């Protein structure tokens, strides 16, 4: 605080509150819409205050079926989303830790080449190489499988980079001391390196979980069997009903349930989330 | 690292998982895209013919492709500029307040976690021409809102949904940038009688320029590649071609239009664009490291 200007402080709070209200507006509307019966939407406008069909809609969507052409209940798709998100998160963290360890703590021929091959994956998000990647996965017979959902998305260099940066900041004396005490590479990895990178791993976990949970195009392409539907992509299937009225209340309830886990992670682990966000952009 | 372990075989074992995944799901498809870009394949994948650069020639003489480029530029810069301006305003305000800073931050950053497709759906229902509250309010104010028919309005809708998701990110980085501005500088200017507005424009904003430039690049990359879900869930690239961005076109021509060669050629062009953007981003980061 440089000087006391009450009106400016008031204006700051007012602007922030307006911003928060605008940011929350669509979620508020979705919440209201999910508490009305489907018939309320044909009438020409969305009611602006809560209705009384909320419990029924949320119950149906969660435990019976999401509706609008998707016969799978939301809890089941949540499970699929969770498997995919955790698979991507753990897979990426595991292979990146190992490869960053190899690149930083060992000297071997073609070390730089390996680094550049991994680095190249930064340049191509899956959306850009979507057709050939789909063909490769189809050739490997991985359509409609958890492996197909997770493995192709694990190929990315961001995590490897992050761990490389983090390992490079570890003083060489530490390695020397460990070696003098007779610790081999595995012992060093598990007893020294992993505990030292705990916060980094946790921060990355938060970011990768959101990334994995929010995957949309990839699961949409490779899952045709509802046993593998994930929650975020099922919205698309719900929206593409062609005949009859779209049951907006069910779509809104499903949308809110689909965004709940990652939003809860961001709010609940805010510090780690901010750290992960800042680290992964360095 | 100056001190290393002497093993020669072990590092390969450690690298193996990542190299394998990269080779199978990255190098192989990328190579196929490159190869496919030089062939013409029939829609059933039964036969194909080498046609050299014809796919690229067709691409660069196609007015729809240039239109899509223009759409992408308009879309990306709108998302970047609107999102950054709003986020900067909110960050400056949040930097000023003393009480409730963390609560404000929490309530502003959560949209980052919402999937793009879901963000699209949430805004779609607000703007639905026949029942959305905002669309109805616009109609009563004399604006005939129908993003199913009006290309510009469809563009506004996807820009709003994409920006909404990205404000949180910009806000966090601007707030961090603002907190790094030395207090003594601002105090000195205040003692010299500079008003808060003058202080912002002559001291704070120039000092924020590295953050601003960094965010501009990140936002453009975001709008280019990560907004597929927003577009696919709301406008599907339409009406006409008005919201077909380059990434959406790759998908649309490949999976819907089944023009595999054309789609592959577009992938190759996009790879070049991403490569360029990555280089810009890295050069900037090098500079930041040198000067800070």
TrEMBL record, chain A:
<dbReference type="GO" id="GO:0055085">
    <property type="term" value="P:transmembrane transport"/>
</dbReference>
<comment type="similarity">
    <text>Belongs to the binding-protein-dependent transport system permease family.</text>
</comment>
<dbReference type="InterPro" id="IPR035906">
    <property type="entry name" value="MetI-like_sf"/>
</dbReference>
<feature type="transmembrane region" description="Helical">
    <location>
        <begin position="146"/>
        <end position="167"/>
    </location>
</feature>
<dbReference type="GO" id="GO:0005886">
    <property type="term" value="C:plasma membrane"/>
</dbReference>
<feature type="transmembrane region" description="Helical">
    <location>
        <begin position="82"/>
        <end position="106"/>
    </location>
</feature>
<protein>
    <recommendedName>
        <fullName>sn-glycerol-3-phosphate transport system permease protein UgpE</fullName>
    </recommendedName>
</protein>
<dbReference type="InterPro" id="IPR000515">
    <property type="entry name" value="MetI-like"/>
</dbReference>
<keyword id="KW-0997">Cell inner membrane</keyword>
<dbReference type="Pfam" id="PF00528">
    <property type="entry name" value="BPD_transp_1"/>
</dbReference>
<keyword id="KW-1003">Cell membrane</keyword>
<keyword id="KW-1133">Transmembrane helix</keyword>
<feature type="transmembrane region" description="Helical">
    <location>
        <begin position="188"/>
        <end position="211"/>
    </location>
</feature>
<keyword id="KW-0813">Transport</keyword>
<keyword id="KW-0812">Transmembrane</keyword>
<feature type="transmembrane region" description="Helical">
    <location>
        <begin position="113"/>
        <end position="134"/>
    </location>
</feature>
<keyword id="KW-0472">Membrane</keyword>
<comment type="function">
    <text>Part of the ABC transporter complex UgpBAEC involved in sn-glycerol-3-phosphate (G3P) import. Probably responsible for the translocation of the substrate across the membrane.</text>
</comment>
<feature type="transmembrane region" description="Helical">
    <location>
        <begin position="7"/>
        <end position="31"/>
    </location>
</feature>
<feature type="domain" description="ABC transmembrane type-1">
    <location>
        <begin position="78"/>
        <end position="269"/>
    </location>
</feature>
<feature type="transmembrane region" description="Helical">
    <location>
        <begin position="246"/>
        <end position="267"/>
    </location>
</feature>
<comment type="subunit">
    <text>The complex is composed of two ATP-binding proteins (UgpC), two transmembrane proteins (UgpA and UgpE) and a solute-binding protein (UgpB).</text>
</comment>
Automatic annotation (TrEMBL), chain B:
<dbReference type="InterPro" id="IPR050809">
    <property type="entry name" value="UgpAE/MalFG_permease"/>
</dbReference>
<dbReference type="Pfam" id="PF00528">
    <property type="entry name" value="BPD_transp_1"/>
</dbReference>
<feature type="transmembrane region" description="Helical">
    <location>
        <begin position="199"/>
        <end position="225"/>
    </location>
</feature>
<feature type="transmembrane region" description="Helical">
    <location>
        <begin position="154"/>
        <end position="178"/>
    </location>
</feature>
<feature type="transmembrane region" description="Helical">
    <location>
        <begin position="12"/>
        <end position="30"/>
    </location>
</feature>
<feature type="transmembrane region" description="Helical">
    <location>
        <begin position="73"/>
        <end position="94"/>
    </location>
</feature>
<dbReference type="InterPro" id="IPR035906">
    <property type="entry name" value="MetI-like_sf"/>
</dbReference>
<keyword id="KW-0472">Membrane</keyword>
<protein>
    <recommendedName>
        <fullName>sn-glycerol-3-phosphate transport system permease protein UgpA</fullName>
    </recommendedName>
</protein>
<feature type="domain" description="ABC transmembrane type-1">
    <location>
        <begin position="69"/>
        <end position="281"/>
    </location>
</feature>
<dbReference type="GO" id="GO:0055085">
    <property type="term" value="P:transmembrane transport"/>
</dbReference>
<feature type="transmembrane region" description="Helical">
    <location>
        <begin position="264"/>
        <end position="285"/>
    </location>
</feature>
<keyword id="KW-1133">Transmembrane helix</keyword>
<comment type="similarity">
    <text>Belongs to the binding-protein-dependent transport system permease family. UgpAE subfamily.</text>
</comment>
<comment type="subunit">
    <text>The complex is composed of two ATP-binding proteins (UgpC), two transmembrane proteins (UgpA and UgpE) and a solute-binding protein (UgpB).</text>
</comment>
<keyword id="KW-0812">Transmembrane</keyword>
<dbReference type="InterPro" id="IPR000515">
    <property type="entry name" value="MetI-like"/>
</dbReference>
<keyword id="KW-0997">Cell inner membrane</keyword>
<keyword id="KW-1003">Cell membrane</keyword>
<feature type="transmembrane region" description="Helical">
    <location>
        <begin position="106"/>
        <end position="127"/>
    </location>
</feature>
<dbReference type="GO" id="GO:0005886">
    <property type="term" value="C:plasma membrane"/>
</dbReference>
<keyword id="KW-0813">Transport</keyword>
